From TrEMBL:
It holds the Pfam family DAO. Residues 11-376 form the FAD dependent oxidoreductase domain. SUPFAM superfamilies: FAD/NAD(P)-binding domain. It comes from the Bacteria. This is Glycine/D-amino acid oxidase-like deaminating enzyme. Keywords: Oxidoreductase. It comes from Kibdelosporangium banguiense.
Amino acid sequence: MTSFADSHVHDVVVVGNGSLGLSLGLVLARRGVRVAVLGRPHRPGGASCAAGAMIGAFGDVTTTSLKDKYGRTKLDWAYQAGKLWPEWLAGLPDGSDLLTADGTVVILNTVGLPEVDTQNYKAIRGALVDYSEEFEDVDPEDIDWLDPEPTARPLQAMFLPHEHAVNAPELLARLENAFIAAGGTLIAEHATRVDHRRGQVRGVELESGTVLSAEHVVLAAGVASQSLLDSVPEQAARIPRLVSGYGVAALVDTEDGTCPPTVIRTPSRDFGSALHVLPRGDGQVYLGATTVISPEPRETALITDAWSLLNNGNRQIRRSLGESSLRHVQAGNRPVTLDGMPLLGETELRGLWMMTGTHQDGLTLSPLLAREMTALLLGEQPTIDLDVFNPVRTPIQPLTRGEVVETTVTRILAGGYESNWTVPVEWPMLLEATLVTELYRDPPNVPSEVGARLNSHGRRLG
């Protein structure tokens, strides 16, 4: 499946063989560009290979994401990208076979906090109405395959017929095949250094010591892009730093060999994660996912995170999951910038481009961003304004510090309820007051012992 060029000279080198990197490489190769895509075949800690790969714009809408123009821009891009997916899949070998779910059911259940679940459910519905997007309210009792415990029963549900899911590992394999067929070069190594001189990129150095020459280098390796960017420290200092949105998911062989026909998911909860299950065929389901912001990526799952995920799936989705076989637990690292916004476009070092920081939207956005980044690389006019997320920027601050503190505390407490904690009724109010005091006491943007404790607390709560 892997091809190697005799020459080490390319027009563009794309660092990263996930959904974004391969999609960009494919569009460039189809335009006749000499392009190489770099990445280890097993993609250690990558986001794409561990993803449930839900394709849609609206399921992840939150009240917070709609508050500012940046969140609304990302929603609009996801909406446009969703329209591209049928043609995108049709252009891949047997691409139509990649779809694993026929629509999405969003449930609002009795778990969590009204300030999070209920409000985000309403935000999803409001966005659907604003975009005149088709959806249908359904009776929770009529949802096929859903069988939660009574204390986690759904109160409301809606069906989104145009939000699907694909098999992520198979998608990556088909992208690789199409890329090679289009004349692209796939190199099974990661880059260790950006080669540059006098303000101009010259290429990259590989782990083997080989130097590839290229006029343009695109960093599309998710959170792993940061280590390569750090080889150009004067640029790294001017770009919001990437950290990991580490998450855990599981592949489960169901006890009775059945799967839901659709995605079944909650609204987004603590720190952007949503409990969801989707079919993978042959009696196997994908159960996801947790989110913990971590300064460094992880290649393996923590037991506490896996336990929390499996417990929530068993309680909130289907009681018989506890009697099912656990096929595989996997960890992935979503690329998150310190300001929460993508890094898209050329840096101040001529020829060095970034295409990452998309958090959980990268796979959904991949057809759109591949098309638009190709236009920029070829000197053409893009159809969307990528410059709003230009990499070289002061950190975007869509929320005030007070709003950040309020949101953080609410999400932490919501995680407790989702984990089925049992505490005296007055304790959550006391905890809330204590957390608010602690967060306001610490200087902004300075890591602290409090921050470490909160991160640990959030991990335990899932």
